[in-house]
Amino acid sequence: MSNPTDADLNAQAAALGERLQQASLQLVTAESCSGGWIAKSMTDIAGSSAFFDCGMVVYSYEAKQRLLGVRAQTLEQYGAVSRETVLEMVAGALINSGAGIAVAVTGIAGPGGGSPDKPVGSVWIGWKRRGGYARAQLFQFDGDRDAVRRQTVGAALRGIAEQL
Q: At 55, which CATH number?
């Protein structure tokens, strides 16, 4: 997967913002490994208050539980980087916001923290529209920490567009 530039992400976010506005939807983000970069990309666009509700950076297990309602049992059984966790994150983001569409990301950006089952570059992304079913996808991104995070933002934005 290619490593998007700042200009690429900005263009992607601007186009997505227009589509969200046309659909009368606001976005909420729940981010772990991307550290708020998806929210930053969206709010870099002038007038983003028309399509962006809020963003939560939830790095720790405790923050995922407290802010998004991720169950301790889910984190213990599957870990933070899992389909089960990202689905609970994206649902919790919608519950705790006024948004109509949500994206959540959790992964291992590196350089450390990987394991044989979850190598560096493993990122789960989840998307959900209010009243709809959540969708989650596992990505395996290449490169250093910055590259993994950039690719995460690009894939998250593409997935939001697919939900519209």
A: 3.90.950.20
